[in-house]
């Protein structure tokens, strides 16, 4: 089976793992590309980390100074004991851009990361050059899905050696692509001191009354000014392709792309197709 280790995707590629102070939050990143290039920032989903985009850094680093970050409360970034609502994520992304000296950036987010990227683009339209919403979270109020995401993520954080694999396999159309390296990477993140409390703080967006405040419905996404690509999949466990189509139609400069036979992580499960579609849009 290919891709038995995440790091084979960066063999032969110059990359950096580092930390910056983003508004007082020690923030971890993976980076490829050169200093003078335009900035692209990848944002992971709830309970995730920078390695969600491990299969995309090399190709995008050929064209952009490409960052995949651990958002506030996630991965190896700081985890202050606060509710991680959308304003908290928006502030962190802005502080990260300030920390790396980027007045503008291309933003691409998966699941929660898409929710954050889209919300940031609405709040700070002059800072976003182009936007990609990849199986974006926050577009529906499906209580069953919200409960599933909340319960599976909490279970993995509380018993990572027993439950992390199941949490990751739920993301994929083909569970066999969840290899040992990916499981161990996330397991060790969840074994950190404070990780359980951080996940608990992150579940605030999966409560109906809070989610309603920041729901990415048609009215809200119509405020996105940046040229935008909405990527969905045929086997996403969180929402049907029609949701992605609806979001794309509501964005004034929105486009839609459907990737077949993938679940919630098309950037990982079919990285070749994702990279091709993603780069074609960003470079056009």
Layout of SSEs?
Blueprint: E1 15-22, E2 25-32, E3 39-43, H1 57-61, E4 65-69, H2 86-99, E5 105-110, H3 112-123, E6 128-134, H4 143-158, H5 160-171, H6 180-190, H7 195-202, H8 208-214, H9 218-221, E7 228-233, H10 241-250, E8 254-259, H11 266-269, H12 271-283
Parallel strand pairs: 3-4, 3-5, 5-6, 6-7, 7-8
Antiparallel strand pairs: 1-2, 2-4
Helix pairs in contact: 2-3, 4-5, 4-7, 5-6
CATH class: Alpha Beta
Average per-residue pLDDT, rounded, comes to 97
Tally the beta strands: 8
**Radius of gyration over alpha carbons?**
17 Å
Instruction: Provide the CATH architecture.
Output: 3-Layer(aba) Sandwich
CATH fold-type name: Rossmann fold
Shape: globular
The CATH superfamily label reads Alpha/Beta hydrolase fold, catalytic domain
Helix content, binned percent: 40-55%
Largest sheet: 8 strands, mixed
**Count of discrete structural domains:** 1
Structural class, from secondary structure content? alpha/beta
Sheet-strand content, in percent, reads 15-25%
Strand order of the largest sheet: 1-2-4-3-5-6-7-8
Oligomerization: single chain
Task: Kindly describe this structure.
The chain has 284 residues and is α/β, with parallel strands linked by helices. The chain has one domain (6-283): Rossmann fold, CATH 3.40.50.1820. Helix content is 41%, strand content 18%. It is built from twelve helices and eight strands. The chain has helices at residues 57-61, 86-99, 112-123, 143-158, 160-171, 180-190, 195-202, 208-214, 218-221, 241-250, 266-269, 271-283, and strands at 15-22, 25-32, 39-43, 65-69, 105-110, 128-134, 228-233, 254-259. The chain has an eight-stranded mixed β-sheet with strand order 1-2-4-3-5-6-7-8, with helices on both faces. The protein starts with 14 loop residues before the first strand and ends with a helix. 49% of the residues are buried.
């Amino acid at each position: 089976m290919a891709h038995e280790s995440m790091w084979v995707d960066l063999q032969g590629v110059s990359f950096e793992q580092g930390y910056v102070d983003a508004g007082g939050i020690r923030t971890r990143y993976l980076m490829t590309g050169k200093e003078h290039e335009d900035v692209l920032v990848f944002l992971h989903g709830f309970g995730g980390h920078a390695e969600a985009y491990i299969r995309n850094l090399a190709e995008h680093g050929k064209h952009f100074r490409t960052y995949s970050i651990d958002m506030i409360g996630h991965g190896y970034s700081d985890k202050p004991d606060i509710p991680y609502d959308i304003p908290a994520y928006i502030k962190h992304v802005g502080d990260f851009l300030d920390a790396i000296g980027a007045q503008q950036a291309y933003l691409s987010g998966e699941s929660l990361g898409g929710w954050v990227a889209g919300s940031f683009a609405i709040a700070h339209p002059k800072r976003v050059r182009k936007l990609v919403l990849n199986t974006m979270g926050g577009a529906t109020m499906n209580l069953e899905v919200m409960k599933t995401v909340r319960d599976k993520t909490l279970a993995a954080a509380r018993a990572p050696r027993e439950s992390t694999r199941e949490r990751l396999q739920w993301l994929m159309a083909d569970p066999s692509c969840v290899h040992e390296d990916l499981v161990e990477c996330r397991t060790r993140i969840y074994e950190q001191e404070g990780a359980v409390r951080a996940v608990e703080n992150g579940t605030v967006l999966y409560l109906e009354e809070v989610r309603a405040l920041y729901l990415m419905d048609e009215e809200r996404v119509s405020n996105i000014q940046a040229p935008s690509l909405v990527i969905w999949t045929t086997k996403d466990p969180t929402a049907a392709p029609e949701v992605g189509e609806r979001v794309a139609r509501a964005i004034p400069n929105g486009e839609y792309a459907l990737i077949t036979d993938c679940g919630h992580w098309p950037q990982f499960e079919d990285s070749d197709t994702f990279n091709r579609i993603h780069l074609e849009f960003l470079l056009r």
